[in-house]
Amino acid sequence: MTPAARRALDAASALFYDRGIHAVGVDLIAAEAGVTKKTLYDRFGSKEQIVVEYLAARDERWQAFLAPYVESASTPTARILAVFDASRDWADAYGVKGCSMVNAHAEISDPAHPASRVIAGQKAWMLALFTGLARAVAPTRAAQLGRTLMLLHEGAVVAHGLRVFPDAIAHAREEAAALLSA
């Protein structure tokens, strides 16, 4: 990626997350990045592709952020709880407005939109992660436990972003711990 394209993607990412995808046009992205609209279209082709790359990059950053938490946990239960710990730290550092995938899904209702695959893929990845981690705790109930953990996690991330109540992710972690010990 050229430096101008990188600046454009960085600007788009910040703007999409802060203001919303529909509220941000290519003129604003170009102005914030200090590039021309031609540069944007030459590199990305369309606003939809910028959205796809924004979401894909955010997901890659999340997965890279999460990996050391899970890898350093010493027990199967601790690995599951580490996902909640990572989510809390991520939300504090990068997610004051909640999950970028959930936010994007709220704006992009067309399943044919190219970003829909990224959004659904990220959530499928999270479900597979929880199910895989649950397999080490309860092999015969891994699918059900994975779904329940996913619901706790996703609900907590949404509640955190909406500021429904203080420390929603920590609360969900406590509920996950209770579920895992039962």
Question: How are the secondary structure elements laid out?
Answer:
Elements: H1 3-19, H2 26-33, H3 37-44, H4 47-72, H5 76-94, H6 100-107, H7 114-135, H8 142-162, H9 168-181
Helix pairs in contact: 1-2, 1-4, 4-5, 4-7, 5-8, 5-9, 6-7, 7-8, 8-9
Q: Output the structural class.
A: mainly alpha
What does the oligomeric state look like here? single chain
Low-confidence stretches: none
Order of helices and strands: HHHHHHHHH
Number of helices, counting only DSSP H or I runs of 4 residues or more: 9
Taken from the alpha-carbon principal axes, the silhouette is elongated
Major sheet details? none
Radius of gyration: 18 Å
Overall residue-averaged pLDDT value = 96
Helix content: over 70%
Describe the protein in words:
The protein is an all-alpha fold. The protein is built from nine helices and no strands. The radius of gyration is 18 Å and the shape is elongated. The termini are far apart. The model has no long low-confidence stretch (mean pLDDT 96).
Brief summary:
This protein has about 180 residues and is mostly helical.
Offer a few descriptive terms.
182 residues, mainly alpha, elongated, single chain
